[in-house]
Amino acid sequence: MSTLRYYDEIGLFSPAISSADSENNYRYYAPLQITTIKRIRVLTKLGVPLKIIIKMENNRTPSEMLAFLNEYTSQIYDRICHLQDSYSILRTFTEFLRHGLTANEKELSVEYMDEMPIILSAPNKFKSPHFYEAFADFCSRQHGTPLNLCYPIGAMFENMNAFIERPSQPARFFSAAPNGNDKKREGLYLVGYTRGYYGQANDLPQQMNEYAQKNNLVFEGAVYNLYLFDEISVACPENYLLQVCAPIAAA
To answer: What does pTM read for this prediction?
Structure first.
């Protein structure tokens, strides 16, 4: 009843008979008013503001309602897309965080990895050895697929030799967006972890190279750097958690 009283107060829906001045303060609604409350209920369920419903009270035609519903459908669709995008970002970060919390940072391992959609940048052009100049350029470029920088950002090297020689100069950057048209292919990878700021690999490239030689593994294809912990989850940049994935084949 409090809702009906509020509707009455704002001039949206009033009782057929009101005894507000009487001692009992009765409010009487006519049976035919059920259609009015049904209309209000439908529109409020859709999220239509009450002030708009009031304006539509005495000025409705099928064509006008169709135009309004089409416009409102478009608005709702945009909201749905926004929520789906937010949900996808949440799932991506959740997956990365869970992986990072269970990762064995002290040991290298050979793991089978599923295909991973990504959005690759154009090839980087390093005018200087500084990592962040190329990274800033990547963030400002136009990409074939809409680039959402809210997703984790990674780096790709053409091969293991390039990663060993220039660990702070990836061939390309990428966004770990699940709608990406590019792919980090499935297969066997040598996987290692290290801590540090963007562009810092410490001695991990050398460790991975020595492990491969000792275990008769051959690197083949692009090397991917993924930050499982970044500025979203870690306050100190020195504690960012880098995962390096290098595809391998038996020698």
So the answer is: 0.77
